Amino acid sequence: MSTSATDRLIVRPARLDDLEVLVRFGAAMALETEGRTLDMERLRRGTLAVLESPARGFYRVAEWPEEPSGKVIGQLLVTYEWSDWRNATFWWIQSVYVAPPWRGRGVYRRMHESVVREARARGDVCGVRLYVEGENVIAQSVYSRMGLTPSTYRVFEDDFVLPRPEREPRERK
After folding, report:
1. CATH architecture, range 3-145
2. How far apart are the first and last CA of the chain?
3. CA-to-CA distance for 110 and 63, rounded, in angstroms?
4. What is the pLDDT of residues 107-136, one digit of tens each?
5. What is the pTM for the complete model shown?
6. What is the residue extent of each domain of the chain?
């Protein structure tokens, strides 16, 4: 995709009529990056909860106007974390997915730039963060090119819903 073609890419807030593609992309991302098969109805309800309640976060989607199989080709979700140290909110980027034929063509870059531009324009956002699966070196490289740097923090969790995957995550190409 040339620069002029990338300029035709539309990045917009997700709508209720994007629900099914968001669910499909979310399930594909979980399987691809962590080897997890998600409960589709739970994922649908969780996705819908965000679309219906902006206090939980928001989805941003990328669409290609000439895409014949459906316009949405990428997504990301932004959630919020309050920082008492900064008296402001971090925006966490998560659930990033770009359809395989569109990877490496600037789709994530455009979504990321859209989120950062909006975050910087507000007075109540102190930064943008994301986490990435430790072995996903391709995504880490992309995020580095976006100007993100590794944090000194490591994420620890006690997940009450999803058990650890039984198999190794698939290697991303």
Report:
1. 3-Layer(aba) Sandwich (3.40)
2. 19
3. 11
4. 999 999 999 999 999 999 999 999 888 778
5. 0.85
6. 3-145
HEC letters along the chain: CCHHHHHCCEEEECCHHHHHHHHHHHHHHHHHHHCCCCCHHHHHHHHHHHHHCCCCCEEEEEECCCCCCCCEEEEEEEEEEEECCCCEEEEEEEEEEECHHHCCCCHHHHHHHHHHHHHHHCCCEEEEEECCCCCCHHHHHHHHHCCCCCCCCCCCCCCCCCCCCCCCCCCCC
Exposure string for 114-149, b = 16+ CB within 10 A, e = fewer: bbbebbeeeeebbbbebebeeebeebeebbeeeebe
> pLDDT higher for 132 or 38?
38
- Tens digit of pLDDT for each residue in 54-91? 999 999 999 988 766 568 999 999 999 999 999 999 99
Which pLDDT does position 41 carry in this prediction?
98
